[in-house]
Amino acid sequence: MREFLANLRQMLSSMVRQAAALRLQQTASSLTLLTLMAVVPMAAAGLLVLTALPAFGTMRANVQRFVAENLFLPSFSETVTGYIEAFVGAAEQLSAIGTLLFLATALTAMLTIDRTLNGIWRTQRPRPLAQRLALYWSLLTVGPVLLGATLGLQVRVAAHLGDWGVLVEAIARVLPTVLGVGAMTLVYRLAPNARVRWVHAFAGALVAACLFEVLRRLLGVYIARFPSYTVVYGAFAALPLLLVWLFAIWMSVLVGALVAANLRFWGVALGPPHESTPASEFDRVVRVLTEIVRSAPHRVPAARFRPDFDGDPIAADRIASLLAAQGYLVRVWPVSGEGGAAGVWEELWLPSVDLPGKTLRPVFDRVWLGPSDRRSRLRAQRAGAKGGIDPGGELLSRPIGEVLGAPTGEGPGAPISEGLAASTGELRVAPFAAGQAAPR
After folding, report:
1. Within this chain, do residues 329 and 260 fall inside the same structural domain, yes or no?
2. Which residue of 137, 278, 337, 409 has the fewest C-beta atoms within 10 A of its own C-beta?
3. Is 313 in the same domain as 250?
4. Distance between CA atoms of 153 and 173, rounded to whole angstroms?
């Protein structure tokens, strides 16, 4: 029991830190506004198949009724679904180009959600665009068909169990939760470009469903007892209520994703959290590359670098993902291993084919300047500063095989990386304050 509580406390503290780093509330707010803009295109795409075939007319009615009864609150469900149906009907009159742009809005929203989930799982690269488009288009089109088929099966089962009214009512109550948990399990399992266990995805989906139901009941009680929105906004009360409700939905989804992403660290010693400066991050990069270059062509166990990362698997996974994304190394882990940060110490790191000819300039820019979307802004700041970033001499532009491949003559085993460290140790960085964390 004590071990369980310790692991639970570690996971919750890790979730709180990650939520603060990701600005979870702001992320949920941005997704809320994005959903408000894309709800009609997504509904149109979801009902595309059900609308195209007349045989699916009854199925479409069942899906619309199910969504109205279980996704929105009763106080504004009829108003919102009425507007959505009217907008979807108007969208059917668009031209071919307009329809393509209309559906592109829905896919853009899904890709934004995909990027958010990959950020929660700390993945450096998302899945290929073609795979993501195929995945989310399948969810938008095949999902409503499966939902309609499930609802049709429920009607038939209820007809056969006519004398078992209690059982039929229990199935009707449980079915929305079961379908919601199943859908979120698939999203958590398939959306991130990381290895996610089914049990972790299911646990996160279960937490999201429970939180969704609690928030739904609390918001329903608040609206019923304190109808201030209706008094103030009148006929427009559905809009602010819809925004609040969408925010609650996204908070539930993101919290469930945090649970699913952090369950992989259950029982893994994460070590004390610490902030890393760009200088310390680049120093770790140089140490890892030095060991890999010296050991080539042999593979290097990642556990060898445990002291360099203070035993923090998240920090090791961050550096390894950065170097893999930049084409410096290849990560290999056992088939039965966890993969990612949770199993980083079980991995083997191999040099890439072109590692000896690569330079340190790309990874240096990535560590010190951050992602490309921030680079232009930082360069503009640097241009107006007196110091700016010292390029570290010509060592950053020389092949890694020459810089890190052999020890110097300054002493037994003294690596050339010490000369690089001495050169970059005098860096004058105007945009970064002392002790500021490295861009992630």
Report:
1. no
2. 409
3. no
4. 15
Domain around 176: 2-265
Residues 407, 414: contact at Cβ < 8 Å?
A: yes
Instruction: Pull the structure tokens for residue 235.
Output: 């006929």
Token pair 């890892």 in the structure block, residue: 288
Percent above pLDDT 90 for the chain:
6
Is the residue at 273 inside a domain? Answer: no
Cis before 356 (ω within 30): no
Same domain for 163 and 186? yes
* 3-state DSSP assignment of residue 95: coil
Where do runs of H (alpha helix) occur along 121-197? 129-160, 165-190
Cα-flanking dihedrals φ and ψ of residue 329, to 5°?
-145, 170
Q: Dihedral of the CA atoms 332, 337, 341, 342 (nearest 10)?
A: -160
Residue whose tokens read 């929305």? 176
- Cβ atoms of 219 and 245 closer than 8 Å: yes
Residue 438 lies in a domain: no
The letter for the amino acid at 177 is T
SS3 332: strand
Report d(CA 104, CA 2) in Å as an integer: 51
Is residue 147 within 8 A of residue 66, CB to CB? The reply is: yes
> Whole-angstrom Cα distance, residue 278 to residue 348?
25
Q: Is 308 found in the same domain as 256?
A: no
The pair of three-digit structure tokens given for residue 365, joined into one six-digit string: 């820019």
Q: What is the pLDDT of residue 203?
A: 94
Helix (H) or strand (E) holding 226: none
pLDDT for the residue 85: 73
Which portions of the chain are predicted below pLDDT 50?
373-390, 408-440
